[in-house]
């Protein structure tokens, strides 16, 4: 019994050490998978258009072009929005970062298509958080819940929807009916805390896009 007990004791010790090593390793894997920030993964940054080697006017033009060349209208059940192109850039320190890590907000401005009130076209401003897609090549659309808007009383003012993806809408020049067709006229990325802004105005938008970008509530 004594001769047999010694090997069993050694075997038990080996098993315990193996179990501890496995659990420690598994914990490290889970921690890495769930807590490693995306901006520390250089391979992930390379998936988007990388403008970290540009500065000044060249950087500004590249960012504006990427925003709009990657743009498309997205419709999800009773909501719709404009998806924009995403990109990598460099901070003043030279560190590589992503657009939505530098800019907090996305603001889109529209004018009503084919509608005028006293000679003025109604305007809509849509504002939400700057968030990028899983593959980091797109800025997620700020979804406009048009079905909810159509149940609101038409008129000027601000409407906020605080669902899973909060959005703020501001209307100007709207009279007795909600316009249903809206033409995109400008795109702005901003970071109020850093007083940082990237604006693509109507003239630049028209020069970059090959066709007008319309959204339709119907």
Structural class: alpha+beta
Helical amount: 25-40%
Q: Average pLDDT across residues?
A: 83
The residue ranges in which pLDDT falls below 50 over 5 or more consecutive positions are 7-40
Compute the separation of the termini in Å.
85 Å
Compute the gyration radius: what is it?
A: 26 Å
Spell the H/E element sequence: HHEHEEEEHEEEHEEEEHE
- What global shape is seen? globular
The oligomeric state is single chain
Domain count: the total is 1
How many helices in DSSP terms? Answer: 6
Number of strands: 13
**Largest beta-sheet characterization:** 7 strands, antiparallel
Describe this structure in words.
The protein is an alpha+beta fold. The chain is 31% helix and 31% strand. It has helices at 2-35, 42-45, 56-69, 99-102, 146-149, 202-208; strands spanning 49-50, 72-76, 79-85, 87-90, 96-98, 105-112, 123-129, 138-139, 157-161, 167-172, 181-191, 196-200, 214-216. Strands 6, 7, 9, 10, 11, 12 and 13 form a 7-stranded antiparallel β-sheet that branches. The protein has a 3-stranded mixed β-sheet with strand order 1-4-5. A 3-stranded antiparallel β-sheet has the order 2-3-8. The relative contact order is 0.15. Residues 7-40 have low confidence and may be disordered.
């Amino acid at each position: 019994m004594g001769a047999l007990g010694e090997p069993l004791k050694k075997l038990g010790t080996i098993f315990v050490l193996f179990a501890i090593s496995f659990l420690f390793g598994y914990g490290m894997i889970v921690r890495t998978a769930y807590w490693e920030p995306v901006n520390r993964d250089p391979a992930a940054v390379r998936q988007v258009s990388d403008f970290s080697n540009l500065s000044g006017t060249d950087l500004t033009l590249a960012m504006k072009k990427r925003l709009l060349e990657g743009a498309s209208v997205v419709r999800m059940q009773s909501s719709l929005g404009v998806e924009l192109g995403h990109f990598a850039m460099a901070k003043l320190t030279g560190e590589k970062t992503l657009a939505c890590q530098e800019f907090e907000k996305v603001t889109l401005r529209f004018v009503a298509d084919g509608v005028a009130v006293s000679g003025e076209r109604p305007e809509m401003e849509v504002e939400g958080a700057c968030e990028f897609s899983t593959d980091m090549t797109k800025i997620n659309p700020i979804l406009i819940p048009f079905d909810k808007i159509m149940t609101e009383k038409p008129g000027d003012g601000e409407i906020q929807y605080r669902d899973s993806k909060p959005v703020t809408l501001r209307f100007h020049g709207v009279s007795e009916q909600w316009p249903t067709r809206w033409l995109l006229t400008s795109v702005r990325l901003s970071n109020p805390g850093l007083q940082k802004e990237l604006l693509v105005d109507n003239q630049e938008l028209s020069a970059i896009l090959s066709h007008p970008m319309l959204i339709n509530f119907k």
